[in-house]
């Protein structure tokens, strides 16, 4: 991730330097055991809270690190390169705190964001449903007004952090006649009566970053409504623009880890008196990985710069850039990790080598926060408009 390093402020470079050291010394060594045990990454998130990473997406006024979007891209990639599960739980937390930052009232921001930034309160973002994944406007979860607040009933699925979170930002239909304009968001604290998380799903990868099905039959006070009624869909789409760049960052970190492992292995592996790197076919595989990585990196950095411009008020929506980065990075990372495994030969298929885990961790990146097919729809829609 060094291509844009000179563009970061000095304090951002120091932040990333410290994060790199912490991840290398205390998070990466636990990655394989986390995958084997499938234990949630509580300890890793606590550590990230201590160094300011849990609030790296938030401004300083709410206890956040206040770093730029390009620095955040770099920082998330650093975490992902050390442990995909940790990065997945971290960025799911960002979706929740971003929801409050973008859509909440000042009182809600003051109540939740400093705790989220310190790591004292872990967040979850509950949008996806069994029949409303790629099309959130088709959600079935309903929220209706009562004399003293709201009653919410429905189900959500594949909710990262859902059963571990201290607060959940949940999206529900408040006016079925208004389609996506009838969707609102709500804050549900941990322990809300009628909020039930089933057991963590048994997933192919990211085994320490748990996802849950949530069943909801809750009474909530009036102030549980996040911001204004009917603005939930707009908030969610803005949050996902941020989140897709963070998925790109995860892909870059995991891809770099796979590529580095493959290069190190190729330099050491001797067959027939030659190292693998002496063979032209292997060198071409390494070159293809490098080209794919650099293309994804530059596209993702462009999206991060557009995100920062929008934050600064000098740019507009960056939905196209975010979709492009998410698609490019997730597709490239999948190919890079697969090539890295191939280069390891049979050893790459064993759990003794990190590339096996990285391949599993990366597979979901082409599905969640908008599948590759959805990103292609967004991109082509912009091209055809």
Shape: globular
CATH architecture of the largest domain: Up-down Bundle
Total DSSP E strands? 9
User: Given the helix and strand composition, which structural class is it?
Assistant: alpha+beta
CATH class of the largest domain: Mainly Alpha
Radius of gyration, CA atoms, in whole angstroms:
21 Å
Count of runs of 4 or more consecutive helical residues:
11
Largest sheet data: 4 strands, antiparallel
The portion of residues assigned to helices is 40-55%
Q: Could you report the average pLDDT, rounded to the nearest whole number? A: 96
Classified in CATH, the superfamily of the largest domain is Butyryl-CoA Dehydrogenase, subunit A, domain 3
Q: Into how many domains do the coordinates divide? A: 3
Residue fraction in strands: 5-15%
Which stretches of 5+ consecutive residues score pLDDT under 50?
none
**H and E string:** HHHHHHEEEEEEEHEEHHHH
Q: For the terminal residues, how far apart are their CA atoms?
A: 33 Å
CATH topology of the largest domain: Butyryl-CoA Dehydrogenase, subunit A, domain 3
Largest sheet: spatial strand order = 2-3-7-6
Concise synopsis of the structure shown:
The chain has helices spanning 10-27, 31-37, 42-50, 69-82, 84-103, 106-118, 232-268, 280-312, 319-344, 354-363, 372-384, and strands at 123-126, 142-146, 149-160, 167-173, 183-189, 195-197, 211-221, 270-271, 274-275. It has 385 residues and is of the alpha+beta class. A hairpin with a 2-residue loop joins strand 8 (270-271) and strand 9.
């Amino acid at each position: 991730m060094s291509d844009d390093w000179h563009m970061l402020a000095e304090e951002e470079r120091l932040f990333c330097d410290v994060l790199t050291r912490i991840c290398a010394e205390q998070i990466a060594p636990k990655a394989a055991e986390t995958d084997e045990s499938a234990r949630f990454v509580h300890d890793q998130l606590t550590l990230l809270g201590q160094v300011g990473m849990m609030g790296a997406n938030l401004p300083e006024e709410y206890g956040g690190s206040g770093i730029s979007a390009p620095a955040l891209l770099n920082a998330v990639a650093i975490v992902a390169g050390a442990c995909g599960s940790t990065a997945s739980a971290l960025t799911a937390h960002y979706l929740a705190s971003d929801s409050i930052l973008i859509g909440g009232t000042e009182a809600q921001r003051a109540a939740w964001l400093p705790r989220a930034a310190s790591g004292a309160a872990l967040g979850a973002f509950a949008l996806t449903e069994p029949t409303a994944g790629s099309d959130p406007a088709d959600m079935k979860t309903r929220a209706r007004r009562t004399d003293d607040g709201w009653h919410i009933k429905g189900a959500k699925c594949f909710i990262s952090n859902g059963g571990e979170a201290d607060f959940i930002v949940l999206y529900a239909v408040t006016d079925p006649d208004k389609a996506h304009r009838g969707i609102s968001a709500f804050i549900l604290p941990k322990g809300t009566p009628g909020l039930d998380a089933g057991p963590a799903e048994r997933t192919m990868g990211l085994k320490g970053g748990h996802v849950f099905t949530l069943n909801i039959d809750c009474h909530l006070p009036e102030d549980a409504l996040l911001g204004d009624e009917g603005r939930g869909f707009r908030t969610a789409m803005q949050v996902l623009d941020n989140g897709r760049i963070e998925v790109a960052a995860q892909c870059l970190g995991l891809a770099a880890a796979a590529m580095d492992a493959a290069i190190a292995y190729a330099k050491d592996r001797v067959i027939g008196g030659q190292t693998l790197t002496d063979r032209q076919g292997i060198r071409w595989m390494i070159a293809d990985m490098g080209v794919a990585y650099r293309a994804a990196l530059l596209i993702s950095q462009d999206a991060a710069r557009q995100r920062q411009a929008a934050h600064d008020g000098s740019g507009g929506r960056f939905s196209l850039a975010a979709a492009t980065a998410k698609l490019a990075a997730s597709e490239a990372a999948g190919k890079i990790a697969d090539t890295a495994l191939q280069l390891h030969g049979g050893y790459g298929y064993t759990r003794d080598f990190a590339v096996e885990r990285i391949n599993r961790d990366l597979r979901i990146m082409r599905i969640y926060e908008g599948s590759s097919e959805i990103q292609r729809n967004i991109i082509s829609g912009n091209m055809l408009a």
